[in-house]
Amino acid sequence: MIDKLSEKDKKALIFGGIVLAIYISYKFIFDPIYSSGAETRQQIENKVFFIKKYYEILNQKAFYEQKRKANEAIKNALAKRFLKKEKPALAAASLQKILEGYSKQSSVAIESARIEKPKYISGLLSVPVEISVRSDLKNLTRFLYLIENHEKFMLVEELTIRRSNKKDPEELQSKLLVLGFIKKLEDKKLKKI
Predict the structure, then answer these.
(1) Does residue 49 contact residue 145 with C-beta atoms inside 8 Å?
(2) Using CA atoms, how far apart are residues 94 and 27, in angstroms rounded to an integer?
(3) Phi and psi (nearest 5°) for 143?
(4) Helix, coil or strand: residue 169
(5) What are phi and psi of 3, to 5 degrees?
(6) Alpha-carbon distance 110 to 100, whole Å?
(7) Higher pLDDT, 100 or 13
(8) Alpha carbons 59 and 64: distance in angstroms, whole number
(9) What band does 145 get if pLDDT is binned at 50, 70 and 90?
(10) What pTM was computed for the model?
């Protein structure tokens, strides 16, 4: 049957067979080999990228360790600034004890002390203690200095001073509202209600 074909048809048939053989070779031999090579190259690139990122993270470990230590130091410094008690009543009693100690140091007589209701100031829970003191101006100044420069964060919110004795103008009757702070933040959910 091939013998009956013309020379031109034989050449076309041979050419078509060669093209078909090349196409089949490409589709089933060369393309899979090239594709698996491309996948292998992509996997290698991914692993190299992963290793580079891993070493970057390892090299930054010292930086993050230093940051962690700095944050820990700040946390400890802030913990010293707040009253240690977590309950407002206990914190107010602790604040009152500090004020009594300072009154003895500065020769100021505390006549009365009253614990006020706790309140939030700038998002922090404060425990106010109102005290009435009798002293002269010099000792009152020393007392206020000791309060304001204590390692705990304390604030004199209100100060009312009046002369207590007409004969002795140096003797003063003072009322102070001193705030101490505890580590309790205001709850944003409760604030919205």
Answers:
(1) no
(2) 86
(3) -60, -45
(4) coil
(5) -65, -30
(6) 7
(7) 100
(8) 10
(9) very high
(10) 0.60
